[in-house]
Amino acid sequence: MQQLLEPINAFLTCSTPDSWIDEAKKPENLTGLLIDHCNCELKAAQTAMFMVRKYAVDDASGQILRQWAKPYEEFVYNQGRSIEEFLASSGKKNELASELIGRSDFVQSDDLIAKMVRLIKEEFHHFEQVLQIMQNRGIEYQNIRAGRYAKGLMKQVRTHEPATLIDKLIVGAFIEARSCERFAKLAPFLDDELNKFYVSLLRSEARHYQDYLTLAEAIAKQDISDRVAHFAAIEAELILSEDDDFKFHSGSPKVSVTADIA
Asked: What are the boundaries of the signal sequence (predicted)?
């Protein structure tokens, strides 16, 4: 595990504060943490899917991606089925209906498709895994409002292409790297089931961070260390500063803060 985490810790410029771990390991915060984690997995899949649809594939392939996401989004936004019903539905819901066709006017389309489709598939699977854990513990799925972390990073994204895509990929790298770091740091304080589950996520989260960063470098065709350093500073400030809301990616919690479920 330590070998896996070394590049992650070198990429991030700060560690998760002990105050966040102290709050996260409290039994009364576990429900909110799992619900937020579940939402994060789906959001990660949706973000990657948006990038593929916007930059890398034609309209027909975009519709294939929409159909892939449909059962997950219907469960979350329509709330028409229980966790049990969703998990018991077709085992093919996490499979693409057919091959995606890359756009000829985007040189990195095939590489972006390959890396992001694998990421999406894994994030959908993680979403289902968290739902299963929630079901086993009698925790209902709920929508919760987004925290400041991803919003704070996205505010720094430039508004002209290809800079927009490059910055979004760098943001994705930081989110995945921070997830990996937090899974590893929190796991020892959780029960056996969650400990094993969070440790099992480390390898895929570490690869996701590398995939995002590799794509950003390839698309930029030049050194991106300045942009990485810029986002590293913003990310560290968000992680180390006090946060009114307790979430999986929130900053240092204020005293007596508890998980906020809308």
From this structure: none
Q: Which two tokens stand for residue 237?
A: 């400030």
Q: State the distance between the two ends of the chain, measured CA to CA, in whole angstroms.
A: 35
Give how far Cα 148 sits from Cα of 17, 105, 154, 255, Å: 17, 35, 10, 18
Amino acid at 127: F
Tokens of residue 166, six digits: 């490059």
**Which pLDDT tens digit goes with each residue over 57-99?**
999 999 999 999 999 999 988 766 789 989 988 777 888 888 9
Residue the block writes with tokens 């304080």: 189
Round to whole Å and give the CA distance between 109 and 213.
15
CA-closest candidate to residue 139, choices 40, 42, 29, 249: 29
Maximum pairwise Cα distance, the chain: 54
Which pair of tokens denotes residue 157?
A: 């994204």
Strands (E), the chain: 242-243, 252-253
